[in-house]
Design brief:
Distance between the termini: 61 Å
Number of helices: 8
Oligomer: single chain
Radius of gyration: 23 Å
Number of strands: 14
Largest sheet: 7 strands, mixed
Amino acid sequence: MPDKTKNPPRVVVFAYHSVGVRCLEVLHRSGVDIALIVTHPDDPSENRWFDSVAEWAAQQGIPALTPPNPNDPALVERISALHPDFFFSFYYRQMLGADLLALPKRGAYNLHGSLLPRYRGRVPVNWAVICGETETGATLHVMTLKPDQGDIVAQEKVPIGPDDTAHDVFLRVIEAGERALSQVLPALLAGKAVHRRQDLSQGNYCGGRRPEDGKIDWSQPAQVIHNLVRGVAPPYPGAFTLVGGQSLRILRTSLHPHPDALAETRGGDGHPLYLLQAEWQGQCLDAAQFRATFPQGCAPDPLTATKSP
């Protein structure tokens, strides 16, 4: 931890989400000088299931800004006047440009929700679940102009169970990020943290996902469909199939028989897939309602005749 007899290191933090709040608390407890927080405005139209950095900053009496563009020259000038030692970025949604990254005297570090160099880029936890990974984690790394490519200073793993949703895993990743920062922070502040170069040839890059990417392809194996359902389950938009031109949301599935199954269907490989939770026209269906509404089942895309539940 910093020497209390000296001025503590001054940091500027770019943060959002519960990840941002938890990691800000780590910095706050360490005694560093959090001179400014840059975050995003809380959007009332967004399904915000996570903590608010703006609210946390207000509670702590720490200045916080919500600029549309963090690279605006006026903001760069304001941050420059703070003479920061470090930048930290915790799930901030915009890239920092060269002018910003040149400001901190002792480095800029970002927390990413994967085991870099795997799953660089957007929504890494969702992608890890969709791709059927059995583990992921959190990585603290040097910020560079290209996303998620800088040297690694800390990394923590978490497991992914066969029926875990992305939300289940994300909660573990939040804790992993907090642990990673806590463990390396004393060495980082002392200038003694080991920096390990990434081998990008051993990783991959993933783009963002849109709600329409949750459409189920019933020609895929049952395991692939199950992974998609898990990877986009609420609070994310959810997987869906079209029935008579309308969206039937498939929110939970199992590869094994289940006493609460709404129905049994099959993937393109012929293996069974059990539907455990589904939503139709804004209503969650129980087993009786599902069978009354979809007497022919829901895959592969055969529901041209439906009844009201």
